[in-house]
Amino acid sequence: METRTILHIDANAFFASVEQAANPELRGKPIAVVGGHGRTVITTSSYEARAKGVKTGMAIWEGKRHCPELIIVVGDNKKYQHTSTKMNEIFRDYTPEVEAFSIDESWLDVTHSLSIFGNAENIAYLIKARIKYQFDITVSIGIAPNKLLAKLASDMHKPDEVNRDSSRERCTYTGAHANSRALRRR
Ligand SMILES: [Mg+2]
After folding, report:
1. Separation of CA 110 and ligand 1 centre (Å)
2. Ligand 1 centroid, distance to 102 Cα (angstroms)
3. What is the secondary structure of 104-154 as a DSSP string?
4. Which of 43, 59, 136, 186 could make an S-S bridge to 21, C-beta 3.0–4.6 Å?
5. What share of residues in the chain are helix, strand, coil (percent, to 5)?
């Protein structure tokens, strides 16, 4: 049987990252996204908020107890869906076999793209650089022979990492910065 190569791509703190990318005043700050006006449960928070102990599922008051300077942002699903669609368009530059699992997670079967791009890590770093450059969002990418292992691999080193399941070794982020600079010239 042919060995397959699957990437699982998971955007980090997706709703919060989209909000921070859209509004420079929110960048580098602890923010929490809530589902709508009048909603009180935190659906996602930025890494700055997580560092203070804010977690998904907390009530706003609870989040503010951990982090008094927490900024509450009312979520905008249309904006997240739009970014998600655009991200999946980028993924399709690397393989036609893209399967969206949720708004911020997709599987890519790159088995037949390896001969074009060299190896799966190259594809992963190219995608990371483009997503970072175009949307200012970091992603975690897992590489494995099947979807489940790829998802587990992407979960292993969050955020902003590429991890291959078979070796259980963490790949460093080298080259991604150079890639994003090269892309800027395109
Ligand atoms: Mg995610």
Report:
1. 21
2. 9
3. TEEEEE-GGGHHHHSSHHHHHHHHHHHHHHHH---EEEEEESSHHHHHHHH
4. 136
5. 45, 25, 35
In the chain, what are the domain boundaries? 6-12+78-184, 16-75
pLDDT of residue 179: 44
Instruction: Identify the active-site residue in 105, 121, 161, 169.
Output: 105
pLDDT at 183 over 80: no
pLDDT mean over 164-176: 51
Q: Which residues surround ligand 1, an ion (CB under 5 A)?
A: 10-11, 14, 104
Averaged pLDDT for residues 18-45: 94
Architecture of domain 16-75: 3-Layer(aba) Sandwich (3.40)
Query: How close is the Cα of 10 to the center of ligand 1, in Å?
Result: 5
What is the spatial distance between Cα 127 and Cα 151, in angstroms, rounded to a whole number? Answer: 16
pLDDT in tens, 139-152: 999 999 999 999 99
